[in-house]
Amino acid sequence: MRDYVRECEFIAMFDADFQPESDFLLRTVPFLVHNPDIALVQTRWKFVNSDECLLTRFQEMSLDYHFKFEQEAGSIVYSFFGFNGTAGVWRISAINDAGGWNDRTTVEDMDLAVRTALLGWKFVYVGDVKVRSELPSTFKAYRFQQHRWSCGPANLFKKMLVDILENKKVSFWSKLHLLYDFFFVGKIAAHTLTFIYYCFAIPVSVFFPEIQIPLWGVVYVPTVITLCKSLGSPSSFHLVILWVLFENVMSLHRIKATITGLLDTRRVNEWVVTEKLGDANKTEPAMEGLDDVQVIDVELSTPLVPKLEKRRTRLWDKYNCSEIPVGTCIIICGCYDVLYAKKGYYIYLFIQGLAFLVVGFEYIGTRPP
User: Fold this and answer.
1) What H or E segment, with its residue span, contains residue 237?
2) How far is residue 10's CA from residue 15's CA, in Å, rounded to a whole number?
3) Which residues are listed as membrane-spanning (predicted)?
4) What CATH code is assigned to 3-260?
5) Residue 105: which of 41, 148, 57, 163 has the closest Cα?
6) What gap in Å lies between CA 52 and CA 357, rounded to an integer?
């Protein structure tokens, strides 16, 4: 950005694992050329390894909903949505107008998008332009990614709340959409409500006979919401129940990350690059021409790379210690419902508790869908 890019008008951004098509610029840059008030053209992600395991299939379902509904709605109704950090084309003058990049949070892409929107710039989401990318296929990498994606927005919300309220360049409805819909509901309340209601209120209610949660609150409304969210990935509809259980479990992890961001605690600026395995581990190396290579045996007195000592793994590093006790407590609530409460929640409680234990012992992501 400080070198030859100064002479350019637009810049396309991609993460290392993204593979744009050859006509990507032809299908995106015209939006910027013919509309001087547009700062960003965001395209959709397409996943090359979504069928690798259950973990990648669940991620595809969540991200498909995000792109098909959340990004589309933000683009059509309010002309604002969060920049996804990759697969987008920016107008460089808009970046400079907003003050450039800022490293005060781990979501510098969202930070730039919010500051640019507050200056009156518009964004466009082009869903029919898809860029191939890869999903993290190990649960450890996925947890680090979700921590950043939950902690960063909460921290940014805290730091930009006053700026958004005092802004005079955008309408009241745009600020309301940004504060309430985008930040509060989308980044904080959604997973907080999910965990408190489905993983705390319903299980604990079996110990209090006077608490009666109506059937529409336990079954009907959640079912309608789930079916609407599953429309983003119709090919994975048969996995919708497992996906909902997994999202309920991950809500605990996201709540912890959100609290970290709001309180500016120790892990607020933690940045761990999301591990991607690439295609190298799925293809066999080429064996052609090996007969022409002469192999020479060399005896080394000193190894080129010293042998690494194996670090002793602690018990709490092997498992996710927050999910295991929560899952155990939910199963205990299910047993109490069977023996004493008789409220009929036990099937849900057993399944949800088992889902917490599966994630706690990191069994997720090892089986094909």
Assistant:
1) none
2) 17
3) 178-208, 220-246, 345-364
4) 3.90.550
5) 148
6) 22
Q: How many other CB atoms sit within 10 Å of the CB of residue 267?
A: 13
Number of Cβ atoms within 10 Å of the Cβ of 126: 18
Euclidean distance between CA atoms 70 and 125, whole angstroms? 10
In this structure, the strands spanning 38-47 and 122-133 are parallel
Give me 69's structure tokens: 């509904």
What is the rounded end-to-end Cα distance, in angstroms, of the chain?
A: 42
Q: Are 248 and 192 in contact (CB under 8 A)?
A: no
Structural domain boundaries in the chain: 3-260
How many CB atoms lie under 10 A from the CB of residue 211? 12
pLDDT in tens, the chain (369 residues): 777 787 899 999 999 999 999 999 999 999 999 999 999 999 999 999 999 999 999 999 999 999 988 898 888 887 789 999 999 999 999 999 999 999 899 999 999 999 999 999 999 999 999 999 999 988 989 999 999 999 999 999 999 999 999 999 999 999 999 999 999 999 999 999 999 999 999 999 999 999 888 878 777 888 888 888 787 888 888 899 899 999 999 999 999 999 999 999 888 988 888 888 775 445 444 444 444 445 445 454 555 555 555 555 555 566 888 999 999 999 999 999 999 999 988 999 999 999 999 999 887 655 555
**Residue 12, strand partner residues:** 89
**Structure tokens belonging to residue 199:** 């993983």
Q: What is the DSSP letter of 37?
A: T
Q: Phi/psi zone of residue 168: left (φ > 0), alpha (ψ -120 to 50 degrees), beta?
A: alpha
Q: Which tokens in the block code for residue 328?
A: 């155990």
Distances (CA, A) of 162 to 114, 158, 159, 175: 13, 8, 8, 11
SS3 of 193, please? helix
Tokens read off for 102: 């800022």
Token readout for 122 is 């518009």
